[in-house]
Amino acid sequence: MKTFLASVLLLFICSFSPAFNNKQALLHKIGDEYQGGVIFYIYQGTDGFEHGLVVAKEERQHIRWQNKSTLVHANSMTDGDDNTKLLTFSPARTYVESLGGGWYLPSINELGLLWGSRKVVNSKLGTLGQPLSKTTYWSSTEYVELSALDFDF
Fewer CB in 10 Å around end: N or C, the chain? Predict the structure, then answer.
């Protein structure tokens, strides 16, 4: 809800493994390294596959969410990928796109999921060099023209 510079935390959503059934254990767990980051949320999709959210090993600080005063209707509370695709005139989106496919700015609810697993995730990120900062992170969920909902870690 602020218009100042904030940190950008990057998420990656991906399919982890072949289908599993109720008799099999999950193949991954929160805190595992995966695809350049650390898993912080796992679920079984309606497709029968294990899916999850991954937080990047590094964050980018002091970057603007939007440069131009324009509503883009990136108002999903749960779908950061969709929100990110809607952003225009956004240094945060430009940075995320420079990293390659799959990365996006998290929705406000995805940041909440990360907050819930932060102790395990920070333990792993600490061994990799940079735990989550005690800072304000932008979500991709739009609040007003130049600002998004944010989450204080």
Answer: N
Q: How many CA atoms lie within 13 A of 4 on its CB side?
A: 5
- CB count, 10 Å around CB of 52? 23
Do residues 80 and 107 touch, judged by C-beta distance below 8 A? yes
Query: In Å, how far from its chain's centre is CA 33?
Result: 15
Task: State percent of the chain over pLDDT 70.
Answer: 83
The pLDDT of residue 114 is 94
Length of the chain: 153
- Cβ atoms of 49 and 19 within 8 Å: the answer is yes
Provide the 8-state DSSP code for 94.
H
| Residue 89: DSSP 8-state | S
CB 59 within 8 Å of CB 130: yes
Beta bridge partners of 67: none
Helix extents (H) in 25-149: 80-86, 91-98, 108-116, 118-128
Q: What are phi and psi of 122, to 5 degrees?
A: -65, -35
